[in-house]
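Materials and Methods. Structural model of Mnn14 protein. The 931-residue sequence of Mnn14 protein from Maudiozyma humilis was retrieved and submitted for structure prediction as follows.
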Amino acid sequence: MTSRIRRAAHYVMGRLMCKNVQRNILIATAVYAFLSLVYLFRVSQYGADDTINQFMRPFLVVLPLPQSQAGSATKSARKVYPSSPLEAAELYRKLRYDTSGAWVDEYYLHSNLLTVPKGENRGKRLSSVDELQFYDSDPRLSWSVYLHNIMNNKEMHDYEMPFSWYDFADFRSYNRLVSIKQKYNDSINCHTLINPVFDKDTLQRWERAIGEELFQSERYKYNDPYWYRNAKSFSNKAVGNPDSVCASIYAPNDTRFSLPLNMTSYVERARPEVFQLQARNVLYNRVAHPISVTMLHSDKAAYRIHVKQDDRSNMVQSGILQEFIDSRTHGDETQDIKFDHDEMFKIFLNNRMAEKFKVNIPETDSSVYDNDEVHLSIEDFKFDAQHKIRMLRDMDPASLSPHDKNYLASLENSVATHPAMATKYFNECGGVIQFKSMGHHRDIRFFNGALIYNQIEYSARLNSMIRTFQKFLKANGLISWLSHGTLYSHLYNGVAFPWDNDFDLQMPISHLNYMAQYYNQSVIMEDPTEGNGKFLIDVGTSITVRTHGNGFNNIDARFIDIDSGLYIDITGISVTSDVIPVSKFSYYDENAALNLKNSSEIQKLSDKQKNDYVNSFSGLAKLTIEQLKEHVADNLGKFDVNQVDDIMKMYNNEVHSLPNSQVISKGLSEVQRYYFNEKLQMVNCRNWHFNTLDMISPLRLTQYHGVAAFVPNKVISSLKIEYTVLPQYGFSTYERHTFISKVNYWVQGTVLRIIRNTARDPSLFVIHSSLNDFRFNDLLSLLKNMLIAKELDTFTSIHNSFEATTYRQKEMEIEYDNNMHSMEKRMYLRELRRDYSPKIHSPSKDPLMLGYEQSLWDKYLKNSDELESEEIMAYVNENTLRARWKMYSKLYEGTLFKVEDHYLDNVGLSLFENSITEGREIFKHDAKFTD
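The predicted structure was written out as tokens:
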């Protein structure tokens, strides 16, 4: 061995003495030195994470980074997650297939909060929170700090919690620009947020300084010269007059945590990535605080805490973050304390003070969701606003909560509002350009980017929203039911259609008012052990106006995601004086209705009936449309042109169009129509959607997105009023999607062609059966093709929604079996809910966790061996498919739904295997629940 080493050393020394080798070494050294200088210069200019610098770094491994870029590595040394293939596999599994509320890592003071994540100082460790210029409000941070403040307050009786939108809403994209505002103060100004598109060169400079892209959705388009030239041609009125919509801020102390500008109004004619920053700036500086923050304990209870209204300070500015740190470090700020929000929430729930904040609505039944069905009466669809106003006015003002006072003011305004004069309450951002008109589906205050090009994240946000709202309803005993397209989607598989933008729910007017009194303008926080949803309940100011009127306020309330602007539309259902429209579907007895119309009950109303109706309003709202027209004519100077126009439209409909129509209400006055509709037990929303009481009641309990929800008594009849409902369950196509009953999912057409292997790709499995009669024998091949073809989003969606969609299919098999007695149906459905519904996982990930875990995974992919990462993904995907296939096999074998000593698989229809025969006409009629 020694002689071999000696001979090798002799050979190397001999080669080094050769002239050519010496010259090559000198050249290599010079090249290395030159590249090193280039690398160091680029790091100082563009940061170590620049694409070219990352490429050069492996060749210059002996070179230390400049101290400013290294970020004091000795201070910020921390374990990077994932740090091993095993951790990477667990991260990928959780990212793709775990929809629980558990975090993949932990959040610490020094390792997370005080380590600058982006911008010119990224990687630098700050010494205290006083040095923070921005921070991304991680839920583990905000929940821990605010819960600590709540539990340690000294004013139990009159406590109001501090509040800042910066701590509760998502400002991550906004903070990217904040992180470089000092370096680029010349280009970050009012023009930045007013121009319809960003300047491409400026955007690239910003992103080099930030260390990451400013936004992700359609970022690639800025690299397309043709697109960019066209986009730059867009303009708006504000470009030439920025002072009309934006004010610059020059004092540095006033721009901590924000940009050096203050938008005073929105400029909608801008692309989504620009308008996103506008909306966040307005939210930070101008949008009013909510009245309260409500924390949910799953679907069991709600804890409402009033908010300070006169202070916009965030947790750093108000000092409550430092108070939390001091309580943990006891003066030793070198400790890297953990923000354990789950533990803090458990402590809060077990604290006696929690009872002080717990909401109990006297008029509701908190156990209503424990019933198989809920019977409503016509009284649930009526509301005496004047009586409620008198009750609240008679109470001691000191005993009224902020919510009570807000509700009283809203009622007083509403009863005095004539339907023809109600101003539009909700504001969407429909003017955002190059956004496929999707701005009409976003609340303007909370718009936070496009989202529409990331179907997984979009679905995750919708899922979080509907699950949290349903848990909120159940916790408070509030009654609502699925309606319109949301009800239609439930019919098939118990989750939303993949192409839907929002949800539609209806509430009886009585329960809409309960929600308005106790929760209007409250931010609802999802249980932190289940997810991170944050939503504003926003009820309009004209909820006693129950007719269509000028059509500006068809929606009564919204449940708004404050991190995206997406929302649930909530409409109140009540007895009204609106005209029953002609329908393609006969949902009431016309002969009986005609007899009622001509009876003395309607034709000869008593004076009391007339007075009761008129006195339910006040001011101009008491006037009929004919009287209002005359009043306006006499006082023309008091009304603007738009109001006059709206009044005349309503007058023409009432006086000229209605008498010539074929509707059943023709010839009846407004007050007569009200009592006519009441006697018919006909109820409606403000957008002319009518139902009879027996179509709605009794409401039936089901599961939607894996949580308890109600559907109307007659689902098919309700849907047929609006839609053409196909009679069969099984193969269907709509909106470029195809429903496959074997996987209970609507698969996108382009994806379906690939995974069915219609092109006969030799790398994919052959699918033998047709879509119309898809056989179990081809199911495994179809699922494997999804993995081979890397259609992972489709596979993930089908996998994660398995419990929810399979539950709905079994429920349907029982509901629509006409050979089963009603008592048997109720018994089996009760067993299904009792034993299987608790096993239903959320069909989508929490959107915040999805984004967080995706960023961790992207960083791992960036720095890992490509072959290794491919092997990790393949390993996790195949294991997941193997486990899921066991469940499909149980479903096929009839052993999935075991209840005590028997299987529900053997009960009802067999739609999983025989949808083409047994599901042929099940949607032709409503499910029968009476013999």
